[in-house]
Design goal:
9% strand; mainly alpha; 11 helices; Alpha-Beta Plaits; single chain; 3 strands; 2 domains; three-stranded antiparallel β-sheet
Amino acid sequence: MKKAFKWIVFVLTTFLSAIVFNMFYEPLKIVAGGSSGIGILFKSLFSIDPSITILIVSLIIVIIAFFFLPKEKIISSIIASILLPFFIRITANVPNAFEIGITEPLMIAGIAGLINGFTTGIDSKNGFNSGGITLLSEVIHEKTYVPLAKISNIINTIIVITGVLVNKNVMNLIYALIVIFVGKYVYDRVFLGISSNKAFYVITNEDKKVENFLRKEGYGATLIQVKGAYSRKDDQLIMTVVPTIKYNYVKDTIK
């Protein structure tokens, strides 16, 4: 029941992301990274419907990830790759049907970042990956062991800069930066506070398996000999530090 509820929330956050795209991102041509940013770029360059671009880009990344990542890590990405462009398509006329009463672009960018940070934070907290550039970053991280956040920042920076060059408007860069920074702030608050890393303390009788998993993921670990207060049994405590964005994945895998 709990898992089903998480999936319902995931569908709702994806739907909300589609509305934000149509109401805020596309009207202002905000290229704030991600497959959505690529969708806006391709519309500006080739007049291609953003939903089509997002679908194609997302599915290509999913296919690539299929060969490099565990299948359970890309299930939500497959669903998001289909749902997001579908929702964007069916909510394309929402801006014409509803007036939000806000015309100041800087405020609109701030609201877009707030909602984006909230939806991605909820998804990450529930252990879901919305796919797109986030999934591509994980693939590159898997093969290079370069920090995930660094990879994501590099890719999204390229997309944002390309957006400024294509739209030839410095204000688009300002809008994108507002979306990114507000979104990051809200994401951190929703997910796990403001810290970028979280400490893990694991007590297990399968310490070798846990060590191997952490090593494969590129994390270091410290072994500490401990004794149970009631059982008086000697055991191993494994301490490690992981990026906040990977917290749920590591926790669920070790469990």
